[in-house]
Amino acid sequence: MSVLAAVGLAAMMAAPQVDPEEHRCLAMNIYHESRGERLEGQIAVAHVTVNRVNHDKWGNTICDVVYQPKQFSWTHLIKDPTPKDSKSWRQAKVIARDVMIGNTEDPTYGSVFYHANYVNPNWAEYMTLSKVIGRHLFYTWDGDWNADNNRTAD
Asked: What is the torsional sign of CA 146, 149, 151, 154?
């Protein structure tokens, strides 16, 4: 085997790299938004975050999306967001990496919004409910705040 072929093979076998800061931001969002949910719910929260990165209404990076004012409650309500539950933090980091490198399918069908089932936000009327996972309701959105454009036919 030539040296060039060996280098190419080694590169293909190497673990995909992710930006450490983007990884930390996504893991923090998973941890604070969904650590009490089953695995699918945590993956769903991660996908909503990434779906927002890919949508023209939000920031272009994971950290921009996570720390956009008043989008995720923990970013403005928790004084010290340092993860305290080491097992949940490790799991959030694994999920974040898997989502970032494309190892998971989006269980939310492209959702860009969600909320817990014990709240009733006024924006939900402008969305299309795409999935319920655990205590979270996930919504797709066409980018228009006109409720008539988002309602499905009965």
From this structure: positive
